[in-house]
Amino acid sequence: MDRESSPSPLNQACASCKHQRKKCDSNCELAPYFPANKYHEFQNAHKLFGVSNILKIIASIEPHKRKAAAESILFEGNAWKSDPVHGCLGVIKDLTAQMSFHEKQLSVVNQHLAFHKEQQKKRQEQDQSDFLNDELPDLVRP
């Protein structure tokens, strides 16, 4: 990997090395994905996966997808920390329920919009009819 010799601008150990209480050098495979400021999030992920499994996961993924995988690992660790029973499934269920609620609201709003458009169309037709009825007698007279 092309990296600078220091893992961060302040020469801090990455979250993984900090957790393992070891020196973070330029060969650290996790430093690009787990910076020092993500230490608490990394702890959550470590409890769920362990460092060796995180290394295996990151190593098994194409290099351009590793950043996204690391973010997913951190997200899942945080999800299990906040909801030890459901984890990510709980987040998915909550988001699905929110989507369903908002889709129903959108449907109601679209029904109201259709109703008001129809009312407006009827008013315009009535106004046009009234206008023609008022003007027609003048046109018929000599």
From TrEMBL:
Biased composition (Acidic residues): 132-142
Matches recorded under Pfam families: LOB
Superkingdom, natural source: Eukaryota
InterPro entries: LOB (IPR004883)
PROSITE patterns: LOB (PS50891)
Bias type Basic and acidic residues, positions: 117-126
Region entry Disordered, spans: 117-142
Residue ranges occupied by any LOB domain in the UniProt entry: 12-113
Family: Belongs to the LOB domain-containing protein family.
Protein name per Swiss-Prot or TrEMBL: Putative transcription factor AS2-LOB family
Source organism of this protein record: Rosa chinensis (China rose)
Lineage: Eukaryota, Viridiplantae, Streptophyta, Embryophyta, Tracheophyta
